[in-house]
Write a structure and sequence with these properties.
The chain is mainly alpha-helical. The protein has a domain at 11-80. 58% of the residues lie in helices and 0% in strands. The chain contains 3 helices and no strands. The protein has helices at residues 11-32, 36-54, 60-80. Helix 1 packs antiparallel against helix 2.
Length: 107
């Protein structure tokens, strides 16, 4: 098994991103009503859906672009959201202490 680069998103995540984008484009095209722009938007949605299903790695650039633009918003929400207390980061959950192993009685 080859080593996986942690900087690359999983293909499942890229496929899901493409499907969500395609569904959004199709709904927007349907909402616009009968027009050439609506038809073009729906055809683009079909193309994005097909590409995301067959070759999800083609969505890597889009994923990087969205990550780049949404990171500041998510970071700010993490700092000021409902779990933040006066600018402090939320504490990690504490792990239970490990119990020592029981040793077998030797005879």
């Amino acid at each position: 098994m080859a080593a996986r680069n942690i900087q690359q998103p999983a293909t499942r995540k890229l496929r899901l991103l493409g499907w969500i984008l395609a569904i959004g484009m199709a709904i927007l095209g349907r909402w616009l009503g009968p027009s050439p722009a609506s038809l073009f938007l729906q055809l683009c949605a079909a193309a994005v859906f097909t590409i995301a299903t067959i070759k999800p790695r083609a969505m890597t650039g889009l994923h990087s672009l969205l990550s780049w633009f949404t990171w500041p918003v998510l970071w700010l929400f993490g700092r000021t959201g409902p779990t933040a207390v006066e600018g402090e980061l939320p504490a990690l959950p504490r792990r239970r202490p490990r119990l020592p192993r029981k040793r077998a009685a030797t005879s």
